[in-house]
């Protein structure tokens, strides 16, 4: 009877979740976005009901496929996989049903086939080695040392202190720190051991006795048994010849060795118990420096001494130690193009000064004289120069070892390819103005990596975005967009929500919820909600959101009315706004009034752009008009529109002559383009604001050029190709296969559903 009631309650919760996806929001608006969270918390309180939830979700998935309710599939599948990872034990029969359903998704278009393939691969490993997904997640998120699975992950939360209030920042810092308090490496290792035993042995596992045995062990023994369990699980998951029964036998031996002669525990056998999934390693950063993102990523790859906390770069670090790491990369950037040699490597091409006729010529000297002196025989191939570091950055002893091998006549072994063992998950908390800063930082990072590769071969970089609007932005940033609402400042989040309903349900609902929770008066209930809810939603997002939506980054070149000033180059992601600048001098003011009386308000502009047509053929259009301003939008209002296109809204002033006299009317013109040039023909300046951020405003502008920002590595290789090719206008060689435009990927749960 009790099982029937539990099943009915879970089914009701799942159906409520699906109704929310259809747009039928719950009666209590504050429950929006919490349905998934409350469902998983309900299962955590009663771990034995996880199999019931998995069975219900499988039935709902099969029903959605038969009824062609495709918008249900990805949310249900993510909910199912998250339940399966956290579940203490799931039968092979249930895993098999989920696996078969994921294989069916391979016949559907993206993103269904992509997500189905990913989950099918994971489920195949989970069936062979139960608990493998949980184990890998804990090892990577907690950076536990393990040779069979040496991957590490870290979550970096970035927020702009000028966009979020101090109360919100302090609350987020407190929550992220509190989430890490009870998670020592020892505790996480014990979680992995206990979960692996329960997942394999099921209800016959004496968890109470296992906990007592691990609790009394010294740290060295806990680490030993942790390595034994990890090796057994990874071996079973990677070897096709090992079946589930052999894996269970291996773990039974470890289980018996762990318990030894210990008396049985107090908890009765035959009942599954919850093994918590530890919160991931999260660090919170206030974005104050332009290159702060790059510094944090470098320190994640090459951490400082253990006495320093790399998460608090601007406060606790030794500046000299920071500079030692960062200057190494910056020094290599400056000297990269000065290490090429003109030596051909042929003995007869050596100049006379290079020979030593009066020196005694022993066999060793002759051998070393005939060998190359460590010079570069030819220019490195583009793939090598863009994918690997020079040997000098791999360690102080790498280069002399190669020389010694050559002197001895032994051919030097090529360096092993670098593996991306680190994953940085960067979560942005804010609005479109923060994403504009991210586009700047990402463009700077890509340029830095083109000059000197360091992060690219080592680091898997993922971006996530959680919109947060406080309603009371700080004074400097509120000047330009004082009347802008949350929708205007969160256009990217609105687009992602329309493209991915699960993102809308789980992430966009945090836009106003985080400020409310942060400003709640301190109370036990407040800490209960914030510590669990905010941290859990962020963890769920970064764990399950693996489908990127790529946004085009646009390059802008700004010319000023002062010829002595160099043009400024910048990038933007969401919007460029140009407005007529107020006249400063008395003479300019009189001329402006006279011109306004005759021609109307605004300034004369010459606009040249490439019109976007269906055939993708470039059609250049030129026009002259009088305008009071224009806005270029890079984020379309509809997810069906082209994401790699600019929507330019120009406010044109039309002069009307009638019997009553001359009058003027404003007409909104809209055009689609990817490249556009705007110039003030009467030399009157205007202002340009990027990404709705008044801190990024250019004044006294007379001309602007906007085009898709090119990938820096493409530009470098294009320059090299043009030096040796007569086909300057065409992409030849490697350039044809390189990404041309710089795209900023932001992860969601489904990407863009076709």
UniProtKB/TrEMBL annotation:
InterPro entries membership: PIK3R5/6
GO biological process entries: G protein-coupled receptor signaling pathway
Lineage: superkingdom: Eukaryota
Pfam families associated with the record: PI3K_1B_p101
Single annotated GO MF: 1-phosphatidylinositol-3-kinase regulator activity
Gene Ontology cellular-component annotations: phosphatidylinositol 3-kinase complex, class IB
The name this protein goes by in its record: Phosphoinositide 3-kinase regulatory subunit 6
UniProt gene name: PIK3R6
